[in-house]
Amino acid sequence: MHDDRKLIEGRLERVLRERIRPAVHRSPIPMEIALWTSPDGPVPVAAGLSAPYRPASAGEPWGAPWATAWFRFTGLVPESWRDRTVEAIVDLGFAMDRPGFSAEGLAYRPDGTPIKGLNPRNTWLRIRPASDGRVRFHVEAAANPLIEGPVTRLGDPLTAGDEPLYRIVRADLTLFDETVWHLVQDLEVLGQLMRELDLADARRWTILRAIGDALDAVDLDDVPGTAVLARHRLEGVLSAPAHATAHRISAVGHAHIDSAWLWPARETVRKVARTAANVTALMDDHPEFVFAMSQAQQLAWLREHRPEIYTHVKKKIASGQFVPVGGMWVESDTNLPGGEALARQFVHGKRFFLEEFGIETQEVWLPDSFGLSGALPQLIKLSGSRWFLSTKLSWNTTNRFPHHTFRWEGIDGTRVFAHFPPVDNYNSELSGAQVAHAARNFADKGVASRSLAPFGWGDGGGGPTREILARAARLADLEGSPRVTVESPAAFFAAAEAEHPQAPVWVGELYLEIHRGTYTTQAKIKQAGRRTEHLLREAELWSATAAVRAGFAYPYAALDRLWKTLLLHHFHDILPGSSIRWVNRETMEHLTAAQQELEGIIGDALRALGAGRGRVPVAFNAAPHPRNGVAALGASTPRAGDHAQVRAEKPPGGGYALDNGLVRVTVDQRGLIVSIVDAATGRDAVAPGQAANLLQIHPDLPNEWDAWDIDAHYRNVGHDITHVASMTLLDDALRVERTHGASAFTQVISLRPGERTVFLECEVDWHEREKLLKVAFPFDLHAERSAAETQYGHIHRPTHTNTSWEAAKFEICAHRWIHVGEPDWGVAVVNDSTYGHDVTRDRRADEGTTTTVRLSLLRAPRFPDPETDQGRHRFRYTVVPGAGIGDAVREGYRLNLPARHVLGTGEVEPLVSVGHDAVIVEAVKLADDGSGDLVVRVYEAHGTRARAHLHVSAAIRSAAETDLLERPIADLVHDRAGIPLTLRPFQIRTLRIRRAA
């Protein structure tokens, strides 16, 4: 027999496209269309239903960018159709290749009851006409623009113009032929499977012959009349069972919805409503369908804005079909948020699911976050969760992650069971290609046989469709394919963990080898996020102190709301800076307002503690270490100390030198630091012949993903910014002004009496495009690794590039500090708002080694926000010569939590104190349940074991260790001195203390 494979495959494609699919919905009857465009964006449903509509027609343009339009559709079902299945097909100009990114709609009955969402992959609406055959429904439609790179086509989405983006394609009543629809699904599944099988596999040829026979049975002029016979000819190949060893896929309905990205949060609220309406309607028709939804914030939006849909969701949650997962407020970025902020993601997310649904979520669900912090396993366990899922590391551009099912060990040694779906997709269609890829790609063959596949249209929402569910049903037990079972994530994880009890272990961070630019993009958002985190710490600390000391009314509701505001803006496309300008503008507005409110709360608490009511100079120190004689977490009059004053001089050869007896800084005539001498050891931190505090600029045009990526080739070309416009000595500081291109830079170098720290400020008026600004510190150190602060600890990374894994980490994330050193001497570089860094090591001509630390200050990508980072910025960073890890930790808090100097009534004793430098008090607050109990969170910060005593300045009635949600785990021993504590390296412990009356 001749090879007729291509003939039959080509025939299948054309007949499906031109004859069989069109026969699913036939005999179209156009509906009457009426249109109203809201002048004010989204409106309540009642307003949309009662709006002054005007006639419209197919082909008519509608929808300026971001506009909201309401459509009214009316029609009459013919008498002859009354006992048959009728569906409306509504196409508002959907972009079929971008589901979830274009025009979208939500259909309503005349009484305002939501029916289901409409989107590019879901244009049908089941019709139940009135007794007289009349049909009427409304659609609230959003004209969301397609934001495309490399330059945002619409510019600023707030002022994108009034030209319509879409045209009404059709709005028809049709007869729905379920048999033909099933024939389409049969042929699609078999055709997709066939193409994935090897040419040498007899199964491929069996399917090919069956498809050919089925196509022969189809009368091209009467597809409905011959569909049953065509399906009958496929029964044999569809009923052949899968091999006993076939890979098993747990298919979980899902709709990844970015809480903001190429649309504002305002639109996400509606995306959530459309998706929830879709999936709950689908559940009514498919009791086997299970859908998982993460992000408590999105369900809270649904509760607030669309309670009628939320009620339906709650019913489906109770039935087990709609499954909350994730246990976090949003799918957060995990590189950039501080430790307490990441912990509160779990606190607020888990608590919402518990209080609303009585569900203790077990799965942490972060499919799209841009790299995963090594602090997460401990936080997952402390939140009461067991399992972890992500898919993003499949995007790695250098190294293939070696496992799909494994145990992930965090920086403290905690392990959690983790899974990366080998389908490499969190928006799967369950196509033949995707399920075959999952089976082929699965890295743990031989020891495990299960993987998970989240299915449904996502990023912009939409969710699963009846077509995807039809694929899942046909792939449940089909020869040549993995077995597909629709089930919950918990069912998958329980089975996978039981099957693979000795899963391999991956230790430390899960570094993503792409999207490294997100450590830096949108510097102001990162700065605002960092500042808001520290203000929340202060607001809780001083409010709790004032509540205990002075009867202050602890602002429970305000703090809860402000935490949730911050947590929303830690979403993985907001804090990383990869959203449109509208989102970025709103983020700054919301965080600025949060900071103002927090300052007000702090001010009220300090006044309750005596601030402004006396004449004594008082410093309130919210940092976890004492400074200038002021206890940590308390207040008193600072001691001036007997310290040498800062001296400034002009050495031979030009430039200046600053000296405070502890450190001497020499600045050359270019305004660059050429020496930082630690007086205690006489060591110079700066490498011979090199200059520190050196601004460097590079071209920055990544191959794709402008706001997200920094590609390694940027290092091939660079320019040192050394031109000096002016250099001025200001008492104990030196100010250097520079220009480059369209930008201006002001650098201030200073010392302070009694501090072994070089203080640096950099103000930038930035007007470059597609450039990267760094500041370099070449140190005279042979450092084999760097230490970078992460949440509740630090992580070591090699400075060499022995393997491709190390070479890929050419840009790394650090929080408040990064440290490099030799065994007996090191240097810390501390910052107040910078996350992107690189650390390199070079051999010098004098046989010495230079270890260079660079901070990434600014970028200027054009997509998706063409104005990224433009304008004025102010950065603060310090260099601490002779520093160990403990010094880096202390200086990081000191820079980010400046003391508040006021006139007051005197000393305020700390509520708690710890006499151990490595044990950090990270949070002091009152319990969230309003009981008045004191909650204290501590962690070990040096990477060592620590024994300490938590002193409590009040009589203790009882004390317990709790999880992150403040639920008791075990009673704690306590005495008059407080609570004895033992901590392993980087361990987090949360203590709940009930004070005696």
TrEMBL record:
Which Gene Ontology BP terms does the record give?
A: mannose metabolic process; oligosaccharide catabolic process
Q: Which InterPro entries match?
A: Ams1-like_N, Gal_mutarotase_sf_dom, GH38_C, Glyco_hydro/deAcase_b/a-brl, Glyco_hydro_38_C, Glyco_hydro_38_cen, Glyco_hydro_38_cen_sf, Glyco_hydro_38_N
Family affiliation: Belongs to the glycosyl hydrolase 38 family.
Q: Could you identify this protein by its name?
A: Alpha-mannosidase
Domain of life, source organism: Bacteria
Domain Glycoside hydrolase family 38 central residue range list: 513-591
Gene3D superfamilies attached to this UniProt entry: 2.60.40.2220, Glycoside hydrolase 38, N terminal domain (3.20.110.10), Glycoside hydrolase family 38, central domain (1.20.1270.50), Golgi alpha-mannosidase II, domain 4 (2.70.98.30)
Q: Record keywords: Metal-binding included? A: yes
What EC number(s) would the UniProt record show? 3.2.1.24
The organism's taxonomy opens as:
Bacteria, Bacillati, Actinomycetota, Actinomycetes, Streptosporangiales
Keyword annotations of the record? Glycosidase, Hydrolase, Metal-binding
